[in-house]
Structures are given as structure tokens and as C-alpha cells.
Design brief:
alpha+beta, about 35% strand, Immunoglobulin-like, 3-stranded antiparallel sheet, about 150 residues, single chain
């Protein structure tokens, strides 16, 4: 069964990975409600700094909006403050310029500088396992020849 989702994961103390997916049924419902084609709707991510708060979407310490393209389903948000908590909304801006949230992510706490989270560490290990052995010898211009 398909479902709408938005999820955030810490990548580093100052970077989040965000991915989202809306079902075709939801897109069609929104098209009908806004009386416009899905591709014409202005989609946005709204990042909330919710450090020290019980986040319900109505208040946050700071808010950033990021316009997204129709073909995007993930992004990396960098240059964030370490040791802070963040929540994310996915939504659209209607013809009158009003923000309408469609779905809300989990709240994620970024670790202090120099600290790696279990999620980040395990994701790094998964990536490292899939890299070919020759990758650390590869440069943008040539392969480094090893002397035996």
C-alpha cells in the first residue's frame, strides 16, 4: 500500500538528508482542490528549528522555505546549526500566496560538532561497503599507479 511520506535523517552535525513521496491519489486530490495541474502547483519544503520545543507546526524558533522542483524527491540541507532539532513540512503555496502544509516529517536532532550519530555512522558504513576497492586511488584525471 502506497502512502505519503517525508523523512529526515542527520548526515552530519550540520547537514540533513530529506526525502519525500506523495501518492498519485494525493496529487490528484490536490489538483482537484486547487483547480490546477499538479505540475503548476508551487511546492515547498519548510524547515523549522524546533530546539527545546514540542513541535506541532504552529511555532518554531526559526523557519526556512525551500522551493522544490516537480521531479525532485530528496535533498540535502547543509550549513545548519549543530546540536539543534529540526522538523520539516512539505506543502504548496496557493494562488493567493498562502502556505498550505500537506505532510510533516519526523523531528531530528543534529549532534554537536564532531559527533557522529548511529544513523550517520551506519549509513556511512553501508556506503563504504558498496564502493569499489580502486575508488581511493582514483582522481578526476587519472588512476594512481601503485608500485609493487
Amino acid at each position: 500500500m502506497e502512502e505519503n511520506r517525508i523523512w529526515m535523517m542527520p548526515k552530519s552535525p550540520t547537514c540533513l538528508f530529506v526525502y519525500w513521496d506523495l501518492t498519485q491519489e494525493t496529487k490528484e486530490m490536490l489538483q482537484e482542490y486547487f483547480e490546477t495541474d499538479w505540475m503548476r502547483l508551487h511546492k515547498r519544503l519548510r524547515l523549522h528549528d524546533v530546539t527545546g520545543m514540542d513541535f506541532h507546526g504552529d511555532a518554531s524558533n526559526q523557519v526556512w522555505d525551500l522551493e522544490i522542483r516537480d521531479n525532485e524527491s530528496y535533498c540535502f540541507l547543509s550549513d545548519l546549526k549543530a546540536n539543534r532539532s529540526y522538523g520539516m513540512d512539505y506543502g504548496v503555496v496557493n494562488r493567493d500566496g498562502n502556505w498550505i502544509a500537506i505532510m510533516r516529517s519526523n523531528v531530528v536532532g543534529l549532534p554537536p560538532d564532531g559527533v557522529c550519530t548511529d544513523e550517520t555512522e551506519s549509513a556511512s558504513k553501508r556506503v563504504l561497503k558498496t564502493q569499489p576497492e580502486w575508488l581511493d586511488q582514483f582522481t578526476g584525471y587519472s588512476l594512481i599507479e601503485q608500485k609493487l
